[in-house]
Design brief:
heterodimer; A: 394 residues; alpha/beta; Fumarate Reductase Iron-sulfur Protein, Chain B, domain 2; Rossmann fold; four-stranded parallel beta sheet; 8 strands; 9% strand; B: 285 residues; mainly alpha; 13 helices
Chain lengths: 394, 285
């Protein structure tokens, strides 16, 4: 087993786990599938066992133990059934950065050839078409077709101050089209000088990182940064928290990066957005990649609170303690049933607030919650935050 | 044979094995990839990491000290989670750390400084630590902090073996670790009780340490004194008692790097690293 995918800190973290089991109480996947090996403690212990067999005292004296293929397969099954929500990292008493560990474990598993085959297909699509859908990348802006009287440039100007990086899910999944459609209208009505990258926008690389193919993302990073700079823009705004987080974490750029909630709040504070009143009770779901991963909790709440008449009822688990909706970490691709069972829990939590409108700031969360609510025949309305903002704009 | 000689004959190899064990673990960590220094040797990586730690520390030393106290020793995060677990952990950590510190002070002053004071008068203050007014306090604090370890260990055992929360999985290693700690502290108090119950043991200098006057035992060595009340009629070989306490203590040291007790070091690093790299809640630009 090659340790180069792990950092010294991560190897130390594997030893730092005391098996206290606190993570078990918070892991959303474990709450649905109570197998020891699937929870954070189980995964760390499994890796510890592999390491001991390869690098332990016994191995150094008598030679490395051959990796057991069945054990690796089981480990892979468990490691890929994770939403990467990162709640284990937040709750761990000894603050193990477990989310980064899961990503590193996946890289090791990819190297060893133990990963779900459909993720291999996804990788091929992304590498060949530059998006996760497998459709042509030139159809990235098909969601614009809903608009009448589109300007000739179709919002793909040669130069602009701001680039709106739409992301694959919003661009290709019809259920999420309302996200860019609403955000684009907000930008336009607020007189923001923005452009889309259109077919020149490539996947941010998050699906590759999440699946363990991190080494493939360099070209994507370079292309996207060059694309933004070619427009003369200094600012990139995202409506996808995973894209935002990936740029923040892996792009190492001097560009100014904003999530849509930060950007919209800024427009509100500058007086460019004004609202009309509506007496309504809503709840807000913190997306994992926006909240725990990027530390953005206040901006969406401030937006909601700035709309007259809106009463925000917090979920039982919110902020850092927010429960994943099940849509994260490619779980939907690997084990759709498990993903749905997590979403069901989320919906129960939403219902307990007594509201029937949930706002989120992630296209994947809104898609997951909405589709599961439909399956459950729950009359729940799910809106992306810019949809809600647009609806209330004067 | 002189107890000091015997002790050091066992202590030095134990420490060699302890540090070798630590290096064995650290050398594994150093096989990982250090971003920006991928081709560096293990020693090179260690130097880079230590350098980063050193520089980081001196940028805000007080902040780091605060984190060590609040988040490592007094485990603030655990306090928010469960008072029982926090109390158990704190008693064990504070007990061990404080016992270690007081023991070091005692050993250094009563051993080295007193010795040096014969040639360097400046160090004559150290006599207060050996036979003077400070000595009873040193002994009292050693007793007190060891007692905290005992209470912490008992609480940990109650939780693991009787309360048994669902999240806890007890493995052989957990049992060994707790029994080890309990044995070390209990055997220490037992010897102390025996020594108090049998003044001839101290008078014959069977053990290494000098002791405070027997008249003060009831408050200085309060738990040992309590146990001594039941030991007046028991006769054991005091040398044997000393060995059954000291040898397991040294074995325990050797065991640390190969057991979950390693988290004493590793978890301290993860907690400090986490706090140092913590992202503030993103501010609206």
């Amino acid at each position: 087993m090659d340790l180069s995918k792990l950092s010294p800190k991560q190897l130390l973290e594997i030893d730092a786990c005391t098996r206290c089991g606190d993570c078990l109480r918070f892991c959303p996947v474990y709450s649905q599938r109570t197998e020891e090996a699937i929870n954070p403690r189980g995964k760390i212990q499994a890796m510890k066992k592999f390491l001991r067999g390869q690098y332990g005292l016994w191995a150094r004296v008598f030679g490395k133990k051959k990796l057991d293929e069945a054990e690796l397969e089981k480990f892979s099954e468990m490691a890929y059934r994770c939403t990467l929500c990162g709640e284990c990292s937040v709750q761990c008493p000894v603050s193990i950065d477990s989310r980064s560990l899961w990503l590193a474990f996946k890289e090791i598993l990819v190297e060893l050839g133990h990963y779900p085959k459909n993720l291999g297909v996804m990788k091929k699509n992304v590498l060949a078409k530059y998006n996760i859908s497998g459709d042509s990348n030139s159809s990235r802006t098909d969601w614009l077709d809903r608009f009448e009287n589109l300007p000739p440039h179709r919002y793909q100007k040669d130069r602009a101050e701001v680039v709106y990086f739409v992301g694959c899910v919003s661009a290709y999944f019809p259920m999420a089209h309302k996200v860019p459609q609403s955000f684009l209208q907000i930008l336009e009505r607020s007189w923001v000088d923005f452009t889309l990258l259109g077919g020149e926008e490539w996947c941010c690389g998050f699906p590759l990182i999440g699946a363990g193919f991190k080494r493939e993302i360099e070209g994507f990073i370079r292309h996207n940064i060059e694309g933004v700079k070619a427009k003369g823009a200094r600012t990139v705004v995202f409506s996808c928290p995973s894209c935002y987080h990936t740029w923040q974490e892996h792009y190492h750029t001097d560009l100014n990066l904003f999530d849509s909630t930060q950007f919209v709040l800024n427009l509100i504070q500058k007086g460019k957005i004004r609202f009309q009143e509506e007496r309504i009770k809503v709840t807000y779901h913190d997306p994992c990649d926006l909240g725990r991963q990027s530390g953005i909790y206040d901006a969406p709440r401030k937006i909601l609170q700035s709309i007259p008449g809106v009463e925000l009822v917090e979920l039982a688990h919110h902020g850092e303690q927010s429960k994943c909706c099940g849509g994260g970490g490619l779980l939907e691709m690997v084990d759709p049933e498990l993903s749905i069972s997590l979403a069901r829990e989320k919906i129960k939590e939403i219902e307990a607030t007594g509201t029937n409108l949930v706002i989120s700031a992630c296209q994947q969360c809104t898609r997951t919650i909405q589709s599961t609510a439909r399956r459950m025949k729950v009359p729940l309305k799910v809106m992306y935050i810019t949809e809600f903002v647009l609806k209330h704009m004067q | 044979m002189d107890k000091h000689l015997i002790f050091y004959a066992m202590f030095i190899p134990s420490m060699v094995l302890f540090f070798w064990g630590l290096w064995f673990r650290v050398s594994l960590y150093l096989r990982g990839t250090l971003k920006g220094s991928e081709e560096t040797t293990q020693w090179g990586k260690l130097i880079i990491l230590l350098g980063r730690g050193w520089q980081g520390f001196w940028k805000r030393p007080l902040w780091y000290l605060k984190i060590v106290i609040t988040d490592v020793i007094f485990h603030k995060k655990l306090f928010r989670e469960s008072f029982y677990r926090w109390l158990t952990h704190t008693l064990l950590v504070v007990g061990f750390v404080a016992t270690f510190v007081v023991d070091m002070i005692k050993g250094f002053t009563t051993g080295y400084l007193v010795e040096w004071s014969h040639s360097i008068p400046f160090f004559s203050f150290a006599h207060a630590f050996k036979t003077g007014s400070i000595r009873p306090f040193l002994d009292f604090f050693l007793e007190f902090f060891s007692f905290l370890i005992l209470i912490g260990c008992i609480l940990a055992m109650i939780r693991r073996f009787f309360i048994r929360p669902d999240q806890l999985r007890t493995e052989e290693e957990d049992i060994v670790t707790l029994v080890f700690i309990l044995y070390m502290v209990a055997s220490g108090f037992f010897i102390e009780g025996y020594r108090i119950a049998h003044p001839e043991v101290a008078a014959n200098r069977v053990y290494m340490a000098d002791f405070t006057p027997a008249s003060a035992n009831n408050w200085i060595s309060f738990f040992g004194y309590f146990l001594s009340l039941f030991m007046k009629n028991i006769t054991l070989n005091p040398h044997f008692l000393w060995y059954v306490h000291v040898i397991p203590c040294l074995v325990w040291f050797v065991y640390i790097p190969h057991s979950k007790l390693l988290h004493i070091f590793t978890s301290s690093v993860t907690v400090i690293a986490d706090r140092a790299n913590q992202k503030p809640h993103a501010k609206v630009q």
